Amino acid sequence: MPSRLVGHVPVLLDDVVALLKPRDGGLYVDGTFGCGGYSKALLASAVCNVVAIDRDPHARGSAEKMKAGHGGRFDFIGGSFGAMDSHLRARGVNRVDGGIVLDLGVSSTQLDDASRGFSFRHDGPLDMRMETAGLDAKSFVNQASEKELAGVIRGYGEERRALSVARAIVAARKEQPISRTRELATIIRRVVKKSADGLDPATRTFQALRVHINNELDELASGLAAAE
Ligand SMILES: C[S@@+](CC[C@H](N)C(=O)[O-])C[C@H]1O[C@@H](n2cnc3c(N)ncnc32)[C@H](O)[C@@H]1O
N or C: which end of the chain has fewer CB within 10 A? Predict the structure, then answer.
């Protein structure tokens, strides 16, 4: 585990460095900067250059610190990796000769910040946007049709009780809008039983909503196409 890394503790760090084998002078893209664990490891492995991307404006603080520590070897782009082609071209980068790394999903820093609304463990506003702009989870949960809700919950969360969860959401929001993560988790727990492995019944639905709100699968498809 890298020392002095505050916030998210990246997994697979050693495997990523072993696979990429960073070399002096190479250019690497860290498409999911987060708290910078991958960028930091790449920069420490060789005298290489790293361009990092993150769509979450909160990542900029850590990126500025990394920039200060690595001078011209590190650059940060606020945006999504799905658009990395155009982001990189706008910086005059036409070829990435080292490699591209994506550490997908949500960071523990995002999960643990109740105000971001990603987690059923910490009560907060039902938000779930990595970019802090666009449609939030509250709008989707309160406005989508039962069919649309069930489709998202089944498709992105593989929740077998997706239709029951969607029905419970639609019934609950008739009483009052669902606006907090804990409210939503309580509604889900009424219709989904705890599984034998102890997984919280809200896990799959929360994952599905996060993937939908952040358009994560389309982002991945665009990111992979750009990386080819
Ligand atoms: C699992 S964390 C990465 C953690 C990072 N490897 C570290 O060491 O801290 C995922 C990060 O990717 C960002 N992210 C997710 N999807 C993204 C996308 N499509 N474009 C840019 N950033 C994205 C999130 O905002 C989050 O900060």
Answer: C
Domain presence at residue 228: no
99 strand-pairing partners: 28
Distances (CA, A) of 65 to 36, 76, 103: 10, 11, 20
Judge if the beta carbon of residue 156 lies within 6 A of ligand 1: no
CA of residue 58 to ligand 1 center, whole Å: 11
Query: What is the 163 CA–ligand 1 centroid distance (Å)?
Result: 30
Pick from 72, 103, 134: which residue ends a domain?
A: 103
- The boundaries of the domain holding residue 26 are 13-103
Q: Is the confidence at residue 28, as pLDDT, over 50? A: yes
CA 185 to chain centre: 20
Q: Is residue 226 part of a domain?
A: no
pLDDT at site 10: 72
Complex prediction ipTM = 0.99
The residue whose CA is least distant from atom 27 of ligand 1 is 34
Question: 77 CB less than 6 Å from ligand 1?
Answer: no
Structure tokens at 105: 């999903």
> Residue 7: what pLDDT?
62
Tokens 């358009």 sit on residue: 215
Q: Give the CATH number for residue 49.
A: 3.40.50.150
